[in-house]
């Protein structure tokens, strides 16, 4: 566990209960500046709920969270976003009847600064930021299309564009390659690597383990709301608890072979 002084984000004994169910239980973790932290685990392990708690969608039942040296415990999602935390969701959320460009302009307008007055007028700076974000993810050529008409891959890119237009210090990606084919997965991986190279810190949830382990500098595996593994990507398939609970022997063998091939390439 890294020291609090060095960490960009720190969670200490964070829990979230729904009635008597502990969706997240006593989770402590640090996220270091510039790293890609991968989070895996079975369905219902508490991964997305942990994202919800950190990003302010639901409050923690216990524990503390700090970001960039300041407490964000109990803060709302808008305040946490304005502090430099952005995220995507499992479902491809968008304003269906707005254009691709208009969707990102809305994110640029509301995602970077608190708006005291409810009026909506997009500034030239927000338009420019939206265009830059769409260029980054490869959607600039589709900026006039209606968001609801986009295929799944482009909707994934749209969500990422909406998150990065707020200029976050840390980006949370919830299953960014779910439902995509191999070529599309490779394109998302290349995009995330470019974002990391630009200085963005990234935390990603994903079930596609080859993608997650190849991309991440460090990996956490959750089960029943708790962290059962934390270590390097190459160690995941060697952990007996992870293999028994999550991967299974077949997937573990394929991942071992993948890392062996990578080391000998």
Instruction: Estimate what percentage of residues fall within beta strands.
Output: 15-25%
What letter string, H or E per element, gives the SSE order?
EEEHEEHEHHHEHEHEEH
Structural class: alpha/beta
CATH fold name of the largest domain, please? Rossmann fold
DSSP strand count: 10
CATH class wording of the largest domain: Alpha Beta
Q: How would you describe this structure in keywords?
A:
265 residues; alpha/beta; Rossmann fold; 2 domains; 6-stranded mixed sheet; 4-stranded antiparallel sheet; 8 helices; 10 strands; 22% strand
Describe this structure in words.
- By secondary structure, this protein is of the alpha/beta class.
- α3 runs parallel beside α5 and α4 packs across α5.
- 39% of the residues are buried.
- The two termini are 31 Å apart.
- The model has no long low-confidence stretch (mean pLDDT 92).
- It folds into two domains: 173 residues, P-loop containing nucleotide triphosphate hydrolases (Rossmann fold, 3-Layer(aba) Sandwich); 70 residues, no CATH class.
- It has a six-stranded mixed β-sheet with strand order 6-7-8-3-9-10, sandwiched between helices. It has a four-stranded antiparallel β-sheet with strand order 2-1-4-5, with helices on one face.
């Amino acid at each position: 566990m890294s020291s609090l002084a060095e960490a960009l984000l720190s969670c200490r004994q964070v829990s979230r209960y729904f009635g008597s169910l502990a969706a997240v239980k006593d989770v402590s973790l640090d996220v270091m500046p510039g790293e890609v932290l991968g989070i895996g685990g079975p369905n219902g392990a508490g991964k997305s709920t942990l994202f919800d708690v950190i990003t302010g969608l639901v409050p923690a039942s216990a524990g503390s969270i700090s970001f960039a040296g300041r407490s964000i415990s109990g803060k709302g999602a808008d305040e946490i976003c304005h502090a430099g935390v952005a995220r995507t969701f499992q479902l491809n959320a968008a304003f269906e009847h707005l254009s691709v460009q208009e969707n990102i302009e809305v994110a640029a307008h509301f995602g970077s600064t608190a708006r005291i007055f409810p009026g909506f007028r997009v500034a030239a700076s927000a338009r420019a930021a939206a265009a830059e974000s769409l260029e980054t993810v490869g959607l600039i050529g589709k900026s006039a299309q209606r968001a609801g008409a986009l295929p799944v891959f482009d909707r994934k890119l749209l969500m990422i564009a909406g998150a990065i237009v707020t200029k976050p210090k840390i980006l949370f990606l919830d299953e960014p390659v779910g439902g995509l084919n191999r070529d599309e997965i490779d394109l998302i991986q290349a995009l995330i690597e470019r974002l990391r190279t630009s200085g963005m810190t990234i935390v990603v949830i994903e079930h596609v383990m080859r993608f997650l382990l190849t991309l991440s500098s460090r990996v956490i595996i959750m089960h029943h709301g708790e962290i059962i593994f934390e270590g390097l990507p190459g160690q995941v398939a060697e952990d007996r608890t992870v293999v028994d609970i999550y991967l299974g022997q077949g997937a573990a063998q394929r991942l071992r072979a993948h890392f062996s091939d990578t080391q000998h390439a």
